[in-house]
Structure prediction request, 170 residues.
Amino acid sequence: MKINLLPSPAAATVVLGAALFALTTVAQAPQPPQGAGGPPHQHQSAPPPTNLKVLPKDLTGEQVHEIMHKWEADLGAECSMCHASDPKNIGPNGRPRLNFADDSKKEKATARLMFTMMEDINKNYVSKVDGEGGPVTCGTCHRGHAQPEAFVPKPDHDEHEHPAGAPTPH
Prediction:
């Protein structure tokens, strides 16, 4: 007596379909955070913004949150650089939460001034130059530093080719 161990074409299709379904379901399942602390800026949902003075007032909390994290990266800074902590509002980590509406830190006023300057540069200068790069951002000057590093131009090319005092060819 001969036993056929191969499944019928219909059974094979069902098994293959179930396997593909299982694979795509697992591939789309949320993955656990990397490392012990999870992603650096994991948050529930950003509350509606209050006290917007230079950003458009119709932005959502998520939009403001995204802008702030871009600025944070451009400046190599943390949120606490501009935002004051609220000792009356303690988070689950035992530390005071930040009061984003508070205007007591001078760095926040500076950020608003710099944003206004950047918007003016983009609107009134960069936009008038044909085909020259993108808009100016915080990172254009700061490049990951709270205080932009001083620009040091390369030595004049001609100075290295001719000894001091020698006439420069015209």
